[in-house]
Amino acid sequence: MTDRKRPEDLRSHRWLGVSDLRSFGHRSRLRQVGYDTTDWAGKPVIGIINTWSDINPCHTHLRIRAEEVKRGVLQAGGFPVELPAMSLAEVMVKPTTMLYRNFLAMETEELLRSHPIDGAVLLGGCDKTTPGLVMGAISMGLPAIYVPAGPMLRGNWQGKALGSGSDVWKYWDEKRAGNITEADWDEIENGIARSYGTCMTMGTAATMMAIAEAMGLTLPGASSIPAADSNHPRMAIAAGRRIVDMVWEDLTIEKVLDHAAFENAIKVHMAMGGSTNAIIHVVAMAKRAGVQITLADFDRISRTVPVIANVRPSGKYLMEDFYYAGGLRALMGELSDLLDLKCMTVTGRTMGENIAGAKVHLPDVIHPMSDPISSEPATGVLYGNLAPRGAIIKPSAVEKRLLKHRGPALAFDDYNHMAAMIERDDLDVTPDHVLVLKNSGPKGGPGMPEWGMMPIPTKLVKLGVRDMLRVSDARMSGTSYGACVLHVSPESYIGGPLAFVQTGDPIEVDVAARSINLAIPDEEFARRKAAWVPPPPRYERGYGAMFSAHIGQADEGCDFDFLSGHIPVPEPEIH
Ligand code: FES
User: Fold this and answer.
1) CB of 450 closer than 6 A to ligand 1?
2) Which residue among 90, 98, 153, 207 is best mutated to probe the pocket of ligand 1, counting the most ligand atoms within 8 A of its Cβ?
3) Which of 496, 519, 525 is nearest to 507 (CA)?
4) Residue 481 lies in domain
5) Quick one: pLDDT band at residue 567, thresholds 50, 70, 90?
6) 87 and 202 within one domain
7) Would the CA dihedral through 221, 227, 229, 230 be positive or negative?
8) Which atom of ligand 1 is nearest to the CA of 198?
């Protein structure tokens, strides 16, 4: 263990512990709030970065969780201060929260840097909040602990469990096919989100919360606790106590996040059948930490780690069941032969110590490694002339007949074009067609929206078709499923090969061979490339203009070029 800090070593000492003109201002203004010397003298100042807002239903409870974290901080002799940050409600923010993940990362980093903070508690959970908070905390480099918001309770409709997202898509198709009524649909709307907390399928939120735990950034088991379970506030209080000791121990985030921690996270991602979005976020977090992780690492690991969490959309159950089955500790226990158990975690103990004794209580929810829930892996990285820098597919959520497929493209120039055509009864489309959506990537979307699970054309839905091959430079929700090739890099908006696809062109995908190709003659490919005219940036002013100018491609993690990397930023001068 590292040497313990002394009070005069604390970062906040420069603001509060010295005797000069500026520190007079800092202390007198704390007194203005009602604090006294006893509140801060010689104590670590803990910044609680809270992504609560009135409009984020996944974070409704974070307002009270922040108070519970404060209770823990006070119990352990720290001085808690809450710092609100952008809430990023996945279903509310348009065009997409992905446009703002880096905004939250910048906000987190600068909130911590500019204030007298010694350690951070990160409160989030809804999709982009986890990577945004963690990326910012990595770049700031203080001791930090993550308190995941936790999943909401299972949905319920007429006695059937409803899963966030997955069952929306499923019953929307049933409604379009005429199999359920408007009244049914209304009841589903009333029953699908029954408590505060994040989506409770293995969407991006559940995946990223688990990944944060697998990287060692949470208390053991924290990511699986349902938001409405009384274990959740107890976890938050314990995190508040723990961060104070982390400051004294100088257990900074870089001492937790090494290459092995990221490899553990990817293995957990695969075993969970996690969201494809996590690939972008893990690459981005690793780059912030100065760790080299590429798409090839995901493909390599996916071949050795089977999906064992029987949770939708790859499986049958929901996150509440996963918790009762033993949660992430139990899943990591199953995986333990593949994990690096020596990784340090925020507990000050190793991952091996954190998961020791974990047991699976419901073996149909967390399967043994010898009996995976799918013969297909959670991730495949495809390459070819259509995706020279890679594209992603989730084989475990694909109809098997589409894992190797050749069909004619039905190409849409953008989302509006697709939306206008897809419902038409006269659309010239068969189940063998490959739906192609362009201009939906990081710059083109803009922000790479979750449009990748394009709806099956209505005329085919009525015939019973529920899956088709779809190709785009968009992302898809982690709650989505189907034969969707996503994150095609480079994107079409900057002249990636997807831009040159025309309706009728044959497209070949072979997941086993990890290939995706546009089967047209090379000369024709070159002719279309030469004729391509770059479109103007999506934004000319404001944050969007900065986004357009600096956003990286999907295979690079979609970080801003000036934020990724490990270049030190000076501490603020205090004068
Ligand atoms: Fe917040 Fe799904 S909408 S986690």
Assistant:
1) no
2) 90
3) 519
4) 380-531
5) confident
6) yes
7) positive
8) 4
Nearest to 382 by CA among 506, 468, 511: 511
pTM above 0.85, yes or no: yes
- Count: domains in the chain: 3
Ligand 1 pocket test, candidate residues 97, 198, 319, most atoms within 8 A of CB? 198
In a domain, 410, yes or no: yes
Listed in sequence order, the residues at least 6 apart from 523 whose beta carbon sits closer than 8 Å to its beta carbon are none
Query: Alpha-carbon distance 87 to 84, whole Å?
Result: 8
Q: Is residue 105 a part of any domain in this protein?
A: yes
pLDDT in tens, 31-77: 999 999 999 999 999 999 999 999 999 999 999 999 999 999 999 99
> pLDDT tens digit string along 269-306?
999 999 999 999 999 999 999 999 999 999 999 999 99
Q: In what order do the strands lie in the sheet with 45-50?
A: 79-84, 45-50, 119-124, 144-148
Query: How far is residue 404's CA from residue 384's CA, in Å, rounded to a whole number?
Result: 14
How much is the pLDDT for 50?
98
248 and 299: one domain?
yes
Q: What tens digit of pLDDT does each residue of 129-170 get?
A: 999 999 999 999 999 999 999 999 999 999 999 999 889 988
Domain presence at residue 66: yes
- Token pair for 103: 């905004």
